[in-house]
């Protein structure tokens, strides 16, 4: 057995973590019922990372197979990017001609089915997922942006996604608090919806834990994975080594460690013939949450059209083989505004490459605020300092990959080792499609969405 060391542990985070009442710690070395303890814990599948991607992969294995699953995290659910996610699962800003469209649509359908299945069990999806079908507005203020919005509406309608172009006056009727000026316009997608990331993760984790009684689900939280253990032949990963335990994955080991996945792979290849460099980089984002915001109510989720450019900035502009982005890349801030299920006003968001730093930055908080005020003049009546006092600033590190699409698939050299990482600003929205794809691959089922754009081989920039 070869031991591949990994010292990659997320920084101490400054964001509020999972509510204490929901935290699940399992650091005991005692064997649990239903699990054979042979110098370590044995499961069919081990998932590394309990963000939205890891937890939904675990959920999919639990609901669609008989396999047992262990999920390992150096902290607790929501301590990575997921805990800072705003929660929009919108189609309005997505590109029907883009490579990710098919996966996006599949994932949206799966979220809808998830919400419907809850309703059919008399569980309110608003309560447990923060599920709200508010519709979304992609808004522009200049004639150039309005032209972009017209093209966007045409493209979405061509593929059958009902979207309407709203003039300035029509927009005012939909969203009276928005001020865009006379050239303002919006693409309106009435069927779009949002979740509350923390709430949804809490529910998914609770539902996963119902499988614990039959020995099919175990969590190892506060246990960073420190090494991957290979079989004697070297062709498979047979277990993960954590700070406290060895956890075997008989059928598969899935790496879903968000922005930490890249450094993890870096350590993996050090001692192996694998020539994969997976440059997932942290792209820091701030989000402002103003609790019980009563002065105004938003009818829809709102995003400025400039967001699309900020999200995709520099995605394809690298030379092959060049590492991801320069850490000094400029800060970008684009306005996104939602109201969550509790009536909190949530304002986003910033993007910057500053390594693994998760410190809150006052100047960025102010920039997000000032950007929002440009669109919502009523906010001028409020004092940011007062709102912050009774609110929260969330910081998260989006897992960014050059090319703008995640890796979802296995390493040819390590047939039972899978990666699901690099979802940048779309991890919540793409989670269920990603989970389905990984589980179908492991089970040998036909995959519902063309997996080629997400395979390790299709990320030529990352192959050395
Ligand atoms: C401000 C902001 C707003 C966003 N808004 C949206 C949105 O509205 N809609 C949307 O779709 N997406 C949004 N996103 C993006 C989304 O949050 C991410 O794409 C998604 O959360 C990534 O999930 P993940 O599970 O891959 O990573 P993470 O949530 O970061 O989870 C990775 C986990 O791996 C664990 N880990 C790391 N190293 C180890 C190790 N060695 N051993 C064990 N565990 C380890 C970490 O502790 C962490 O819990 C937003 C992101 C930010 C920052």
From TrEMBL:
Keyword Oxidoreductase: yes
Swiss-Prot/TrEMBL keywords: Oxidoreductase
Keyword Oxidoreductase recorded: yes
Signal sequence interval, chain numbering: none
Highest taxon of the lineage: Eukaryota
FAD dependent oxidoreductase domain boundaries: 44-441
GO CC term, one of those recorded: cytoplasm
Function: Required for the assembly of the mitochondrial membrane respiratory chain NADH dehydrogenase (Complex I). Involved in mid-late stages of complex I assembly.
The protein's name in its UniProt record: FAD-dependent oxidoreductase domain-containing protein 1
Species this protein is from: Lithospermum erythrorhizon
């Amino acid at each position: 057995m070869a031991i591949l060391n990994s010292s990659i542990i997320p920084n101490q985070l400054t964001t509020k973590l999972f509510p204490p009442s929901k935290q699940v710690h399992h650091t005991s070395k005692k064997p649990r019922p239903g699990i054979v303890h042979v110098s370590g814990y044995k499961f069919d599948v081990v998932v590394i990372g309990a963000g939205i991607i890891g937890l939904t992969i675990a959920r999919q294995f639990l609901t669609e197979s008989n396999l047992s699953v262990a999920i390992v995290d150096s902290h607790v659910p929501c301590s990575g990017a997921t805990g800072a996610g705003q929660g929009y699962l919108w189609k309005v800003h997505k590109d029907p001609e883009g490579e990710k469209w098919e996966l996006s649509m599949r994932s949206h359908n799966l979220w809808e089915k998830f919400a419907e299945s809850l309703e059919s069990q008399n569980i309110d999806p608003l309560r447990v997922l923060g599920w709200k079908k508010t519709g979304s507005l992609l808004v522009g203020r200049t004639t150039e942006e309005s032209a972009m919005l017209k093209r966007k509406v045409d493209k979405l309608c061509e593929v059958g996604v009902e979207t309407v172009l709203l003039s300035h006056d029509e927009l005012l009727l939909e969203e009276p608090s928005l001020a865009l000026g006379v050239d303002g316009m919006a693409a309106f997608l009435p069927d779009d919806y949002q979740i509350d990331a923390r709430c949804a993760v809490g529910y998914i984790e609770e539902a996963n834990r119902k499988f614990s009684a039959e020995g099919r689900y175990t969590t190892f939280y506060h246990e960073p994975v420190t090494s991957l253990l290979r079989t004697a032949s070297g062709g498979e990963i047979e277990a993960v080594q954590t700070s406290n335990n060895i956890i075997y994955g008989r059928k598969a080991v899935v790496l879903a460690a968000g922005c930490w996945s890249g450094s993890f792979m870096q350590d993996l290849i050090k001692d192996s013939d694998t020539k994969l460099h997976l440059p997932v980089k942290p792209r820091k984002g701030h989000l402002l949450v103003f609790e019980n915001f009563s002065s105004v109510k938003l009818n829809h989720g709102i995003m400025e059209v400039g967001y699309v450019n900020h999200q995709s900035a520099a995605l394809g502009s690298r030379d092959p083989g060049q590492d991801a982005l320069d850490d000094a890349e400029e800060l970008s801030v684009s306005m996104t505004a939602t109201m969550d299920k509790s009536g909190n006003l949530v304002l986003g968001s910033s993007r910057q490459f500053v390594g693994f730093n998760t410190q809150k930055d006052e100047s960025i908080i102010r920039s997000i605020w000032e950007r929002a005020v440009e669109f919502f003049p009523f906010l001028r009546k409020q004092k940011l300092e007062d709102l912050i006092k009774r609110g929260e600033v969330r910081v998260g590190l989006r897992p960014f990959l050059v090319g703008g699409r995640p890796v979802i698939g296995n390493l040819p050299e390590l047939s039972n080792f899978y990666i699901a990482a690099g979802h940048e600003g779309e991890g919540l929205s793409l989670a269920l499609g990603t989970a389905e794809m990984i589980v179908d691959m492991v089970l040998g089922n036909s995959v519902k969405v063309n997996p080629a754009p997400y395979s390790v081989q299709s990320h030529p920039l990352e192959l050395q």
